[in-house]
Amino acid sequence: MRQFIVRRLAISALVLLGVSIMLYALARSMPADYVTLSTSTLQKITQEQKDQLRKIYGLDKGLVGGYWDWLLNAARGDLGTSLVFARPVTEIIGKYMPITFTVSAIALFFELLFGIPLGILAARRRNTSVDYAITAFVFIGISMPSFFLAAMLKRALGYYGLNLLPTAGMLNARVIYRSFTFAKALDYIQHLIMPISVFVIINVGIWLRYTRANMIDALSSDYVRTARAKGVPERRVVYSHAFRNTLIPTVTLLGGQLPALFSGAIITENLFGIQGLGNIALTASTMADIPYLMGFNMFLAVCTVLGYLISDILYAVVDPRIRLS
Amino acid sequence: MKRNLLMRFSLAAALIVIMAAGCINSGSQQTPAPPPQETEAPPAETETAAPVQETEAPPAETEAPVAEETGVPQEDKLLVIAADASFEEKWNPFIVESAYDHLVIDQIFVPILQINDRNEAVPYGGSVTSQSNDDGTVLYTVTVNQGMTFTNGDPVTIDDYIYSLYVRADPSYTGAAGSLLGAFIEGLENYYYDDINYESRLAEMEAEADAKYTTENISLEDFIIYAQGTNLDGWWDGDPAGDAGGVTWSEYAEGEGFGEQLAAIDSADAAAMLALIAEIEWTNYRDAYDTYNWFLDKMKSEYALGGLEDGVDVPEISGITRIDDYTCTVKYTQVDIYGDRGLGTQNASGNLVPKDYYGAFEKGDVSNILSNMLPVGSGPYKWEGFEDNIATCTANNDFFLGQPKIGTVRWQYVPTSEHITALASGMVDISNPTGNQSNVVELEALPQIRVDFVDNAGYGYMAMNTQRVPLLVRKGFWSLMNRAPSVDAYYGPIAQVIERPMTTTLAEYPQGATQYYPYSKDEALRYFNEAGYTQQDGKLADADGNQLVLNCYIGGEGEGDHPAYAMLVQAAEDMKELGGEIQIQDVQFNVLQGAMNDGTADAWIMAWGSVYDCDKSSQFRSTGSQNRYRFSDSKMDQLLDQIVQTIDLDARRALVAEMLDYAMDQCLELPLYQRKNLLAYNIETVDTSTIPVATTAADYQNVLWQLDLVQK
Amino acid sequence: MENISLADALQPASFHEETDEGSRLFLTPWQMVARRFFSNRMALFGMAVLIVIALFSFAGPLFYAYSESELFYIDKETGEELRTTGDSARLATSTLASLQKPSLRHILGTNRLGQDMLARLMYGGRVSLLVGFVVVFVELLLGILLGGLAGYYRGLVDSVIMRVVDIISSIPLIPLMLIMSSLLITLQISTQHKIYVTMFILGALYWTGVSRMVRGSILSLREMEFMQAADATGIRASNKIFHHLIPNMLPNLIVLATLDLGGIILLESTLSFLGVGVGAPYASWGNMVSTVNDSEIMQHFPHVWVAPGICILIVVLAFNFVGDGLRDATDPRMKGR
């Protein structure tokens, strides 16, 4: 086991190195650099000033030199200072990760809460109207662009529709909360219902489909037939025998969701005015903010690689048939 | 069968529910629409109307405690203002850049001068006076008001002002917009480049450039260096087998009579081929390349970057002299009509920043000052914090003009698409929705909203790269532009088509100027024919059979969301009919910037903002820093020089008209539209009698501290 | 009619005298797949939708008078509608026929620029479907080739290819596309070609899933008896790959491809929304539905954004139905509905 993890970690490091090289090369080949973009409307700026700025920002170095500097600093945990936001990249990620993570984690919780039981239900009642209704709803969810869904939700529930929920922002600016009270929590919840619903409606289908397929598989397997033959009550058959076996693939799929928890959904955050990592990344990519783009994208890459690693390990832990060699 | 029916039904039902949710009320929503209100109808007048001057001399009654007048105590009053792009969160007076961060920062700091609604710089936290000397230098005397304090208790003195100048002059200063460099302050360049002999070094460099790099004097070797450094001004694509404008490089070389030399080199070797092409250009077309400025810039850059490596040589800016605790003088080496603004206003160097709070620094390292994100100033509001996309400030009751009436002001980020909803639902009190037809329609349907229309200090235009596109082709291209319907469909009543490239908010705009290139396909074809393009087998091509292809960059969000978009589509269709091609590149802003700067765009559509003077030197002058038209013309240079030296308005107006006509004739900027900005207030919450009439130069922000809420 | 249950499907055909292939005694595996697929109503429904949409998009413009970019004007005085090709002098004094509600002349109305929505819907369908198919083609090509090499040769080849796969799948897609899009324009690729280059880039980023699957299947197939038999006969490697391995993976590949088709159409709309997809002047469903950003259009002119939104919805839905149908049909354990 330890040997397996060590080897996987070594490979992961190699992969991350490759990712960072590719990302840096891409980021540096953007058509206009930050200095060009941020000074383009200034009438008095001189070429020397721009050169001086490039020197301060480290943009005067070539591709290789610039990358090497970045790598050395990154290895020491210093991801540089964002050009647009003028703060250390680690500080920005640290500050906004909780927001993005909380929203995604709550959404994931609801996805599982709806997806798994409905998946089980659809599997048990497969080829009935219940199954069709569930499947149809879920398919509609995964077949829509998220911004289209967001627009419709805003239209239906926002001010111009039923006027139930605020359509943007994270808190009502009219109230000043001195501390974290119940009222503040309620305010957050009101603002986050719509964005979280978008996540849930779009993603619940993945879990439902997965659970449904695995349950159908499990319900027709020999051990379930045996259990039924022995006269085990149907509830127990479904939940103890069949469902427990579908947990294995579900848990591994969960590992793969790790990066998504941190990346946020660029579009959803943007539409609802949530200042999360995804929204910031959008600004950063239009302004060629190389330190932030590198820091953020590498952070996601680390999460992805870790996600794979965790799902492999989880798989091995929950399924004794897998040997790690 | 039954099952399947059910399945289909459920599917259809789901579809309908979702769609219905989306479309619900789509027709009936504006039920509370009042009859068309004429109150905000004549917006064109707003900027010329002379409203009561609330900014310069604060009325005496504000000194009295306001809390008792209204019943609601000041500290319980809360105003919410919308900002329509996410904050960059640069809460620092030296590096603040985005307009939305400025909304907040501008309330925390007091500048020496304030721009009033008639676009004049008037005394505010101090004053700036000037005295011209016979030798052409100008001495500015800057004073700060006595008795002001920062919110941390420190008194405001002239040292705080001088401190701010030094931070902005530092070589390590990164807030490009606020840099002092470019002001004609004596000794500033010596300080920035850290060389007491800056002028003589500069003269040496110029002399060297004169001797070696002018069109007449440049050697072939230097020209090859230039060609390599600039890729022949963007013409060379790095591929020896590539395209040299319809022919291959080899064909080009042969056509220019360099067949022998071509045979002597390996035509697949990029470096050799570039050298050969450089030789051809050096021999035949030397005057088309600006080698002089390129080499001069290169020398300057190499020189500039070396400054502090040998320790500090120039510790002070010689032109800045401290007189007493509240006064200093700043010496300018030449006349600058806008010198006082440069020294005194908010967007330049004018903010008074507490020296002791932001801390001392060594020359060459201001990073600690720039990274301080907890602003402290002497403005009407003081910083509370930023959380959940809301910036909060509370009243500074020691503000030198009096107590603000509203205790707390918050700025909330609201996505552009949600501004109207935010106003309608009472989420925010003041907002600046994007000025376009749809927002006007939406706002007019809301009885509780007052809208001020303010002419934007800028205009939209289509620019041309004059080196890529010959004059006659430019003229033909412009004759294909059907501007009015396109602008009208997008902006409706809040924009008008303009005929000269200048904002109509300026007194110098030639009123009554007529269309220079009326939309006409026939006229366009005539120009193209004159330029040597004729219609051959359905293709509009030159003598060598090269089709006429032009590109135009536009930032339409990828979905044609731009006032000039329909115009371009129409032009592209017409051009197709004529046998040519217009490639519309609908791109993101940064890509447009890139194409415009590196010279790969034939034409691009942009807008100028924050234009408060008629000087177009930075754009049209051959050495202008914004001259992306790559236009170099001595007549234009002369006209531009004359304009800035002409003080009499009528004379200047005539010169400006002449200059603009010439610019039109040369096809630099095709003027598109002058539009208005919207400022919307919720009159149920904000006491409108306290809101000044907004103009292009000034709005409620100047007097935010005097704004009050409606008494409930 | 009722669904053919698993038991029916798996029974030898000879017991099914009433079936179409009644004259034949046995069904090949592919025929069984086809039968199972065609007995799946949802999948058939999806198939029918796709055929209709494809006809609408590819054949529709041949029978429709207006083109995707053509603008319509209205003469201010007479109220008469003018077309792009009209007389310049008249066009200059007219207004654009923007945001017209559906009428006989424009069945789905016009957009803000005064273009016919129905025409744009047809051309947009072409682009959206084409993007889907090209991207899937590229991803299959690359995925099968590289995944096949990795799985077949194993060892070093495998390690190198799979690390590349890891690297590519660790790069976040949307930031990458934002950068790529600006690069494409810098490289002076014309707008028409940009669509295709974008498709190839997407394909080049999407192949990792296919290659993982192909590699996995080959690794497991190699252990099966029929492959060992093939090895024993000493046939050439290419023969083994193309005649034995790939046909065995085909069902899975088809399913994956169908589901990806839907996913890529969605991705195209997302990219359009960010302004880096198939750019105007070319219509795509993605950039048409993106106009929902404009609050006036969203509230008062649903005809501009609802139609492309529904088109995306039903096409992706249809691909999902077909994909699921194919999966059920090819995998007997899934026991099609």
Report on this model:
The complex is a heterotrimer of chains A (325), B (712) and C (337). Chain A is an all-alpha fold. In chain A, 74% of the residues lie in helices and 0% in strands. Chain A is built from 14 helices and no strands. Chain A has helices spanning 2-28, 34-39, 47-57, 63-75, 89-124, 129-142, 146-157, 182-219, 222-230, 234-256, 258-263, 266-271, 277-286, 290-318. The longest helix of chain A is centred in the middle third of the chain and has 38 residues, at 182-219. Chain A is globular, with a radius of gyration of 24 Å. The termini of chain A are close together. The model of chain A has no long low-confidence stretch (mean pLDDT 84). Among the domains of chain B are: 72-84 and 414-712, Dipeptide-binding Protein, Domain 3 (Dipeptide-binding Protein, domain 3), CATH 3.10.105; 201-306, no CATH class. With 712 residues, chain B is α+β, with helices and mostly antiparallel strands. In chain B, the strands form 5 sheets. In chain B, strands 11, 12, 13, 14, 17, 18, 19 and 20 form an 8-stranded mixed beta sheet that branches. A 4-stranded mixed beta sheet of chain B has the order 1-10-9-8, with helices on one face. A 4-stranded antiparallel beta sheet of chain B has the order 4-5-7-6. By secondary structure, chain C is mainly α. Chain C is built from 13 helices and 3 strands. A 3-stranded antiparallel beta sheet of chain C has the order 2-1-3, with no helix packed on it. In chain C, strand 1 and strand 2 (81-83) form a beta hairpin. Chain C is elongated and about 85 Å long. Chain C starts with 5 loop residues before the first helix and ends in a 7-residue tail after the last helix.
Question: What's the short version?
Answer:
The complex is a heterotrimer of chains A (325), B (712) and C (337). Chain B is an alpha+beta fold and 712 residues long. Chain B is 33% helix and 16% strand.
β-strand amount of chain A: under 5%
Please report the number of helical segments of chain C.
13
**Total count of helical runs of at least 4 residues of chain A:** 14
- Alpha-carbon Rg of chain C, integer: 25 Å
Indicate the mean pLDDT of chain A.
84
Helix content of chain A: over 70%
Instruction: Note the overall shape of chain C.
Output: elongated
Mean pLDDT of chain C: 80
Which superfamily, in CATH terms, is the homologous superfamily of the largest domain in chain C? MetI-like
The count of β-strands of chain C is: 3
Largest interface in this structure: A-B, 71 and 73 residues
Query: Rg of chain A from C-alpha positions?
Result: 24 Å
Main β-sheet description of chain A: none
- Number of structural units classed as domains of chain C: 3
- Biggest sheet of chain C: strands side by side, in what order? 2-1-3
CATH architectural label of the largest domain in chain C = Orthogonal Bundle
How far apart, in Å, are the first and last alpha carbons of chain A?
8 Å
Output the CATH class name of the largest domain in chain C.
Answer: Mainly Alpha
Distance between the termini of chain C: 14 Å
The low-confidence runs of chain A, each spanning 5 or more residues with pLDDT under 50, are none
Structural class of chain A: mainly alpha
